[in-house]
Amino acid sequence: QVQLVQSGAEVKKPGASVKVSCKTSGYTFLSYGLNWVRQAPGQGLEWMGWVSPYNGHTYYAQNFQNRVTMTTDASTSTAYMELRSLTSDDTAVYYCARDVSKDWLDPWGQGTLVTVTS
Amino acid sequence: YELTQPPSVSVSPGQTARISCSGDVLSKKYGFWYQQKPGQAPVLVIYKDSERPSGIPERFSGSSSGTIVTLTISGVQAEDEADYYCQSTDSSGSVLFGGGTKVTVL
Fold first, then answer.
1. What residues contact A20, with CB distance under 8 A and at least 6 apart?
2. Nearest CB to B95: which of A47, A106, A111?
3. For residues A78 and B22, what is the distance between their CA atoms, to the nearest angstrom?
4. Residues A7-44: pLDDT tens digits?
5. Does A104 touch chain B (CB under 8 A)?
6. What distance in Å separates the CA atoms of residue B24 and residue A106, rounded to the nearest whole number?
7. Do the beta carbons of residue B10 and residue B63 sit within 8 Å?
8. Is the CB of B1 inside 8 Å of chain A's CB atoms?
């Protein structure tokens, strides 16, 4: 079955960077894009952007354009999301989710909690 | 949010819960629905306005009219208590989420 397994929780200081991984299995990695979505504590879902494993193309939400990088590694069927210049506002659970037909997201990874604290 | 949902809906067991999601993009684009239980990742329950993924109970259904999509849970069960998010895409391909609706089973 299709599975997305993310890396473990992270604690970072303000100004640092974090890189979250999302290892996929159960489908042809190159055939589906991957989205990244975050959820601050007690808040709703916020889309961060999308990456194509086929050609490396990316599309970032305006809120993150200047400090996020999304990449993929086809040799390990893994996607990565790096967020720089962290502040306490970036404390959130970060999810990867497979893109279906550039329309919907299914399935989702289990989430990675990133805590930014001094 | 460009997609607007009610913050909360309360329903008694066995009754019907309806959650609306409104937004101009919905007149041209499909709506999708996700269920999120506490501490868990979202799960797709409806795609393309009204299609139900395999494994999702038949009591979940979706509909669309104009700029509104609606998620209906018929015969609500205690296990349906969760947050529900609608989702669509805009003309540039950005993913849009509604603010979420907390469904409480009384």
1. A6, A7, A10, A36, A80, A81, A82, A94, A96, A112, A114
2. A47
3. 35
4. 999 999 999 999 999 999 999 999 999 999 999 999 99
5. yes
6. 24
7. no
8. yes
